[in-house]
Every structure is written in structure tokens, then in C-alpha cells.
Amino acid sequence: MLNQLTDGYNRTHDYLRISLTDKCNLNCSYCMPDIPFYLPNHELLSDQEIVKFAELFVRDFGIQKIRLTGGEPLVRKNAAEIIESLSRLPVELAITTNGVLLDRFFSLFEKIGMKSLNISLDSLMPENFNTITKHDQFFKVFENINLGLAKGFHIKINTVIKQGMNDHEILDFIEWTRNSPVHVRFIEFMPFDGNHWHWESVVSFNQMLEKIENIYPIEKLEDSLQSTAKSFRVKNYAGTFAVISTVSEPFCQNCNRIRLTADGKMRNCLFSQNEIDLLTPFRDGKDIRPLIQNCVANKKAERGGLGGFDKKEAKATYDKGRCMTSIGG
Ligand code: SAM
Ligand code: SF4
């Protein structure tokens, strides 16, 4: 029987983000802790378990959309086989990737009808990209983005903006949308365990918009109810842009997202302070559906109950949480 996953604030959850791995082939300064910690393989969901969990969420809880993330989802061994199996489910399947390995996957994505790709790119300057990611992969990623565009994929670019890291490139990204049909999404820098976050390093939605509006005539575009992004276009430009304002203006009231970590823990929010182990009871043959329902029922109104990020107590809590790669972004 199908049960919708509704929480105490009447929000229905039909969007599941699955982390395929906590490993990554880049080492972004705002994401990875200084000393990366990786889960041992036996603690991770196996290929079959990922597919079984996804089937259960779709069949029993009416999940409509699954996004694969990580770490870097495409570095997972057998990523292609897992993606192909998941594509047989009656859901919209999507992926967020750093783009390094994309060229190896285009034909699979074309075959399974995945038309839209979210690709992370934090700099249009090769040297700055290398500094941020600690890997010399700018040209590979940029080439793969252009290849994807040439093949007709709709490409959303995720760009985390951080003071002193790449805020001087905001207008370059806007300029990129002049002739290129990319959708650039500027993301406010968020706090996670080990990523050295502090308020002064956040460039807020208002600050970004002011910078852009000072130079360009922009128009607001319509956003879907559950969208995390506020979208705009510079008049007559081929591409569009948006800002994801998790820090300065959270968008929790319409949230429909739940998460499954690579080690089979369910999280009802990116900032949640609790997670529910689904993998151990699943391996013991137990019914995990009540656990899933409880997890959603206990979802807090906003940002995992952390409150404003400026509060000292909140900082102490998220400092002890998981890093972004182990949650699954
Ligand atoms: N490796 C893939 C990638 O980079 O696209 C998928 C995982 S990554 C964790 C997912 C998204 O989270 C990326 O767009 C990344 O830029 C973003 N992200 C990571 N750490 C962040 C932070 N501290 N604040 C805001 N966004 C962050
Ligand atoms: Fe890896 Fe993505 Fe995190 Fe960069 S943002 S370290 S690519 S998981």
C-alpha cells in the first residue's frame, strides 16, 4: 500500500537524494574537511541494496524523483550499472556531479533519457579552479560541460560563492550566460563539519544580486513551489542564473526532500542532527518502513532545528555533524 511521507508541518516528501559514495576525485576547500575521512566499503550500501532501497521508497512511499549525489557519484564502482537499474523505476532520475568523468557517461545518460545534468563548477579561471579543488581538472570539466551542451543536455551549473574564493568571478559567470544556454546557480556557502565556515565568508543572496543588478538589466523568472533557487535572466541572454539562499533566506516551508547516505542512514534534512540507520535493520530482515515514516514525522520546521546559523549554540552543533561528502550534497 502506498503511504505518502508527510511530516508534522503537512509537507509531503517525494524527492529522495541518494549518496552513491562518500569518496571524491576532487577536494574542494569549502566541502572536504582538512583530513578527509572515508567510510569502509563494508559499511556502504551494496549496489543491490541501493536499488532495493530505491524500489521501496518509490513503491511504498510514492517517491517521484531521485537525485544521485555524493561525494562524487560517478567514482563509485559500478555507477553505470546502478544508474541503469534505477532508470527502470517510474521516477525522474537526476544527478549532481563535478563533471570530471562525465564524458564516460554521456551515452548512458542518453540511453536512459536523462536530459538534465547538474554540474559543479566554482571558477572559470583554471588556476583558481585548481586552487579550490586541489586538482588540475579545469579543462576536463569545462570540455565536458561544452560536450554536454553540444549533445543537447540541459545543464545547470552549481557554483558555491565564498568571500575571497570566487566572489570576484560572479560577473564572469553572468557573462558566460550571454551566449551559452547554461543555468548558473550561485549557492551561498553553508556550514558543515570541518569546512571552516563563518558568517564573514558567506556572500548572501542580496549581496550577489546587488553586484549583478549594478551592471546588468535582469528579469525575475518563475520558480516552482518547491524550488530551492530564485531564478533570473539578464534580458536577452541565452542562459539564466539563480541564487540558492540556504543561509540568508532558507526555503524550508515547502521542502519535499529526504536523503539516504552512502552508508544507509536516512536524514530528513541536510542540517538534521539525527539520522536513522536503515541498513542494519534491513540486513537483519526487519521492516524498515516504520523507521522511514518516523524519520519524516520528526522533521523539524527549519534547517534541522539549528535555528539561525549566527547563533553560537547552533555552530557548536553543526560543527559536530557530518561533513558534506558523507551526508551527500
Ligand atoms: N561531487 C558532486 C558535485 O560536486 O557536484 C556531488 C556532491 S557535492 C557535495 C553537491 C553540491 O554541494 C555541489 O554543487 C557542491 O558545490 C555543493 N556544496 C558542497 N559543500 C557546500 C557548502 N559548504 N556550501 C554550499 N554548497 C556546498
Ligand atoms: Fe567532491 Fe563535490 Fe565536495 Fe567538490 S563539492 S569535494 S567535487 S563532493
Provide a descriptive summary of the structure in words:
This protein has 11 helices and 14 strands. It has one domain: TIM Barrel, CATH 3.20.20. It is 28% helix and 20% strand. By secondary structure, the chain is α/β, with parallel strands linked by helices. The strands form 2 sheets. A 12-stranded mixed sheet has the order 9-10-11-8-7-6-5-4-3-12-13-14. The two termini are 30 Å apart. It is globular and about 60 Å long. Helix 1 runs parallel beside helix 2. Strand 13 and strand 14 form a beta hairpin. Bound molecules: S-adenosylmethionine and iron/sulfur cluster (SF4).
List keywords for this structure.
alpha/beta; two-stranded antiparallel ribbon; 20% strand; globular; binds S-adenosylmethionine; binds iron/sulfur cluster
Task: Tell me briefly what this model is.
The chain is an alpha/beta fold and 329 residues long.
Strand order of the largest sheet: 9-10-11-8-7-6-5-4-3-12-13-14
Please indicate the count of domains.
Answer: 1
Mean pLDDT: 93
The bound ligands are: S-adenosylmethionine, iron/sulfur cluster
Question: Which fold does the CATH topology refer to?
Answer: TIM Barrel
Using the CA coordinates, give the radius of gyration. 19 Å
Number of helices: 11
Which structural class matches the secondary elements? alpha/beta
- Mind telling me the CATH superfamily name? Aldolase class I
Shape annotation: globular
Give a count of the beta strands, DSSP E runs of length 2 or more.
14
Biggest sheet descriptor: 12 strands, mixed
Spans where pLDDT lies below 50 across 5 or more residues: none
What is the N-to-C order of secondary-structure elements (H for helix, E for strand)? EEEHEHEHEHHEHEHEEEEEEHHHH
Tell me the β content.
Answer: 15-25%
